[in-house]
Amino acid sequence: MTQAPTSPLSPSVPAIPPAPRRGPLRRLYDWVLHWADTPYAIPALFALSFAESSFFPIPPDVLLIALCIGEVNKSYRFATWCSIASVLGGIAGYGIGMYLWDIDALRNFFYTWVPGVNEKNVASVSRLYEQYNFWVVFVAAFTPIPYKVITILAGVCGIHFGMFVLASAIGRSARFFLVAWLFRTYGPPIKDFIERRFALVTIAVTVVGVLGFVALKYVL
After folding, report:
1. Which of 82, 148, 155, 160 is most buried, most CB within 10 Å of its CB?
2. Dihedrals φ, ψ of 22, to 5°?
3. For the whole prediction, is pTM greater than 0.85?
4. Which residue in 65, 69, 30 sits closest to 45, CA to CA?
5. How many CA atoms lie within 13 A of 192 on its CB side?
């Protein structure tokens, strides 16, 4: 039978195993969450939502959920700030792709440090934009697909700016207000469902919406 390791200072007392080391992404996740308990929660939510749209790896849903749990009655207010900042951040991402992508150092930074931004995806998304430009932006804004990848590549591909902003505003607002509505309707107990099933919900809603649009197009 294997015995528990003992402390070198007192052989008869089992040693306490060292706490597992947290990776950098987990530490960043915890750092994002800690803002929920500070007076700067809304400015932090705004800044996070803006940054996530072009380079930051942690989605704003993390802080949005924490704030909605703390103050359910302000859920729509939090979603509003989240949506505005995210669309503005998307515009910044579009600008990076449109005006700065030819700078080798910047392009290499995104290829190295921003998940989902790479040469293969640039080519793939460029082909998608040729046929489904509005839907590509909307789906990325609403579902778990990394929105930052689409905002930057929208600028790289030079898609219509007005269409990009419209699709971003609809998709981002729908996503964040859906979270807020779930909390306002069901309260904090909905948290586990959102964390485990929200991705499937957004994908299902998107599929239904696209099928409905296609059906309407053929009917008319």
Report:
1. 82
2. -90, 140
3. no
4. 65
5. 1
185 Cβ contact partners less than 8 Å away, ≥ 6 residues apart: none
CA angle (44 as vertex; 139, 152 as ends), nearest 5:
35
Q: From the CB of residue 211, how many other CB atoms can be counted at a distance below 10 Å?
A: 10
Q: Which residues contact 34 (CB under 8 A, 6 or more apart)?
A: none
pLDDT digits (tens, 9 = 90+) for 153-209: 899 888 899 999 999 999 999 999 999 999 999 988 888 888 787 777 777 767 755
At 87, the amino acid letter reads V
- Where in the chain are the domains? 40-219
Contacts of 59 (CB under 8 A, 6+ apart): 52
* Distance separating alpha carbons of residues 174 and 33, to the nearest angstrom: 22
Position 99, amino acid: Y
State the SS3 of 162-197.
Answer: HHHHHHHHHHHHHHHHHHHHHHHHHCHHHHHHHHHH
How does DSSP classify residue 82?
A: H
Which sign does the torsion angle of CA 154, 165, 45, 33 carry? negative
